[in-house]
Specification:
Largest sheet: none
Radius of gyration: 22 Å
Helix content: over 70%
Shape: globular
Length: about 450
């Protein structure tokens, strides 16, 4: 047995027995594999992550082009380039802050669909930019959309997925974000920077079209008293012939016990603040690994090194390796477990996809909407500080200083994983929440 994170003794029963009895989720998994509907709903949602990944690295080929621009209104200095690269993260932080309200007010699905509005407006501004302010505003709006989807999509996916495939499906947001980045790098070899912005409009519009045909999260519908609609959504997701009543009753019971909103007094309850604290620290430490400034300035970083290939080709290779790594994580997460991959893998196989999944798994239902937004807010405020200061530090001290710092943070992450991160493989969201509520020392390795 593994000692639980920040755990305390609770009632004398085992939340997670060594050989858990068959749960309704097992049958639901078979139904999902047969009819593919839950995968279709997941794909429709994670198109928002594709847009996010595309927008995040948009500056990688664009900054070098604008630094060499002959147009005085669009020519970027080093300071302006740092703002152009980093203002995306401020928009993402604002998107996470908005998600704290929208996630529970509009629901997960509508919040994801709403993100397409600032995304489309931002790309339009950058495509037609004739001054720095249009570039910065467009970048901020696409960042806002990215922050909103980063908070809403993992929650939506975790709430519609059966336990047996939740790990694989939970990796798809990061997988699609990486694919979006790779798509941008590939297009950057072919298209000028304005047309890269035009191409960014497509995925957001396709997401709205597909997601409008998908059901809302059954857990969200139950929390709004729409029981019949929730049952229909769950039955649709699990497929024809699947017996969903056992799973539905389990979800319904958990929702009813948490029908009211969390108060500030309840936030001091250990079963509430412990999982939220874990999720916040994961998001904070993930950003401290330096992934955002590295991706934002990837081509500029290769420009300053003695690599053999052209910088734009190197950036595309990095994107391809990241895509392969996340794909491996998606295929192995439900077999090896979340914690093992955090220990033995690099960013793209571990701290990239798994921390987003764990955030959506461990957050308590009553606080899931608000807490996921708070996690994104903390994540992107951290990313802004790193991204804004990265070029300044590199210009003053060279690349080695920030990269030594990032390496030290990776060692801290190993300690945090060993001491604080629980294993959630194969457990329903209700089981995970029950663990934090009871404090039993029964989480399996």
């Amino acid at each position: 047995m593994q000692e639980p994170l920040l755990g305390a003794e609770g009632p004398d029963y085992d939340t997670f027995p060594e050989k858990p009895p068959p749960s309704p989720g097992v049958g639901a998994r078979d139904g999902a594999l047969r009819n593919k509907r839950v995968f279709l709903a997941t794909f429709a949602a994670v198109l928002g992550n594709f847009s996010f990944g595309y927008a995040l690295v948009y500056t990688s080929p664009v900054i070098p082009a604008l630094e060499n621009s002959s147009d005085p209104d669009l020519h970027l200095t080093k300071t302006q380039a740092s703002w152009f690269g980093s203002v995306f993260t401020l928009g993402a932080a604002a998107g996470g802050l908005s998600a704290m309200v929208l996630n529970d007010f509009l629901g997960r699905k509508l919040s994801i669909m709403f993100s397409a509005v600032p995304s489309a407006a931002g790309y339009a501004l950058m495509a037609g930019a004739h001054g720095l302010w249009m570039l910065l505003l467009g970048r901020t709006l696409t960042g806002f959309a990215g922050g909103l989807t980063a908070a809403c999509i993992p929650v939506y996916v975790s709430e519609i997925a059966p336990p047996g495939v939740r790990g694989a499906l939970g990796a798809t947001p990061q997988l699609m974000a990486v694919f979006g980045s790779l798509f941008l790098y590939a297009l950057g070899l072919l298209l000028p920077w304005r047309w890269l912005a035009v191409a960014g409009e497509g995925p957001a519009l396709l997401m709205i079209l597909l997601l409008s045909l998908m059901p809302n999260s059954p857990r969200f519908l139950l929390s709004r008293g729409r029981d019949e609609e929730a049952l229909q959504a769950l039955a649709w997701l699990r497929g024809a012939g699947a017996d969903v009543h056992g799973e539905f009753e389990q979800i319904q019971d958990n929702v009813r016990r948490q029908s009211s909103r969390m108060s500030w007094a309840e936030a001091r309850d250990p079963h509430m603040y412990r999982p939220i604290l874990i999720a916040l620290l994961m998001r904070f430490l993930q950003q401290l690994t330096g992934i955002t400034p590295v991706l934002v300035y990837l081509q500029s970083i290769f420009d300053s090194t003695a690599v053999l290939l052209p910088p734009q080709d190197d950036a595309a290779i990095v994107g391809a390796v990241r895509l392969l790594s996340v794909l491996i994580a998606a295929l192995t997460m439900d077999l090896a477990g979340r914690k093992v991959l955090l220990f033995v893998s690099g960013y793209a196989m571990g701290w990239g996809p798994i921390t987003w999944l764990l955030m959506s798994e461990i957050l308590p239902l009553r606080a899931r909407g608000v807490a996921s937004g708070l996690c994104v807010l903390v994540s992107w405020l951290t990313a802004f500080i790193l991204t804004k200061s990265f070029l300044l530090v590199v210009n003053a001290s060279g690349l080695q200083v920030p990269f030594f710092f990032f390496a030290a943070i990776c060692l801290v992450n190993l300690l945090f994983t060993g001491c604080c991160v629980p294993e959630t493989k194969g457990r329903s969201l209700e089981q995970i929440e029950s663990f934090f509520r009871t404090g039993r020392r029964s989480f399996l390795r």
